[in-house]
Amino acid sequence: MFLHRFKCMAKHLPSHPPPPSANRYQPLLDFAKAILGMRLYLFLRCNLLRFIEEYKSKTLRKKNMIDAEKFDLYIEPSYLGVTLNAQKTLGCIHDLPLCDEQAWYVDKKFKDTWERLVLPKMAAYTEVICFSQYVKKEILKTFGFSQEAVHPIYHGLREYRDTHSEAIPSNLGEFILVVGANAKRRNVRGLIDAFKLLPQELQNRFKIVLTGAPNNLDTEDEQYFKQDFIVNLGYVSDALLQTLYAHAHLLWWGSLAEGFGLPMVEAMHASCVVLASDVFCMPEILGDAGFYCNPYNTTDIAKSLESALTDEALRQECIQKGLERVKLFDFKESMRRHIEIVEQMLEVEL
Q1: Is 251 helix (H, G, I), strand (E, B) or coil?
Q2: Which of 36-40, 75-79, 196-200 has the highest mean pLDDT?
Q3: What is the pLDDT of residue 183?
Q4: Chain-centroid distance, C-alpha 257
Q5: Which one is the CATH code of 165-327: 3.40.50.300, 3.90.1300.10, 3.40.50.2000, 1.10.3720.10?
Q6: Spans of all domains in the chain
Q7: Structure pTM?
Q8: Distance between terminal CA atoms of the chain?
């Protein structure tokens, strides 16, 4: 009865029209946006095409101007040289990553680029500057240059002093330094595996400190480097790197491929002991001023690592020899030799 009476009352209640919808003008707004979007698209497209055409035109004009010029000498400091109308070309070859043992770390894309674009340009150099006798041998083996056309000049060392001790993170303690750890050829896995074979006392005492921008690490390496005894600093400034050299117990340079290895020289200058591979250019650059290991043998790495960390007499001997050997890598002498070669190629009176 009550429900029936309620329904009857509801019939006589005033009815109100529904409130105007908030989306009443939405179709019109959508249409306006579409028109504006189309105009903006056409504007951007026309201007982008115009910009591209202008850029291509300017680039072509510059190229034509360069092609019309005749140069006495073109110096190429990298490996992707441009094509110039030059009587002579002096190229710098830092290493040859496709030669013999080094070929393993080159991916297919880079290998194709190297063989298609780089090697033909290098083969056309008039003379070459390289940075170790080891690389000179590789160049002579790969190309048809004469002995006299290839000039090995050691890199010169910049002067620096450790003035930033406060910049060292407080959690490092005693550590083994790895520079450029993001490159696979630095053999960081070999170091880590060997470190785990050390006596527990040494494992507790030392950490491994990695430097180098992490963007080149693959997922597998990134996970492998996340261990309790590893501190990954990533990219570090030159000032902090110099400080790390001065305070490291050891520099790991058990690399699987190098053309020079400047960090070994920087470490010697900072009185830091070096453990290096016994292959490639390392014995030439480090000489008798460091420890060596077979970079392909984990047991041998562990044995040399333990000695380099604990044999204080040999460590001090290496430090003293390193301070003397570092004099071979003189910045001014390196610069003088570069200028001398350029002047000879230009037939300038010295």
Answers
A1: strand
A2: 196-200
A3: 84
A4: 14
A5: 3.40.50.2000
A6: 68-152, 165-327
A7: 0.77
A8: 123
